[in-house]
Give the backbone structure.
Amino acid sequence: MEDGRDLVVACIALGANLGDAAVSVLAAMDALARLPGTTVTHRSGLYQSAPVEASGPDFINAVAEISTHLSAPDLLAQLQALEYEAGRERPYANAPRTLDLDLLLYGDAAINSPSLTVPHPRMAQRAFVLLPLAEIAPQRVSAAQLEAVRYQFIVRL
């Protein structure tokens, strides 16, 4: 325990479709490892995917598994700070972005607050989340989930 909090395994989706997206996603993975009380335990490869409910160029996506002593709200705040540092702007819903970090899973917690929903409510509908998640944590993704997104454009780089 660090600061009285148990260690929790969490999964983070990373994506970008502005600037050098691959460099941004890789840099964000490194930045996750520098969060207080946090270790990156697994990193997926990089994937290229078409925007889903968004506009702009294709995305570069990945998923990281971390072990952290941060609470879910504190982890969310840290993720949002990393997005801001990477130049993330939110001019409108689903705008192209320099960096997008989504908290997919936080241990076995089910959280439904105005600022955070875990498990991420749309993760099962998105190949760009499920394929990299299945790469690093296959027990978290079912064959039925993968089948449901098989027609979405995604390529492992």
The chain has one domain: 8-156. Residues 127 and 134 are 10 Å apart (CA to CA). The domain at 8-156 is CATH 3.30.70.560 (Alpha-Beta Plaits). The radius of gyration is 15 Å.
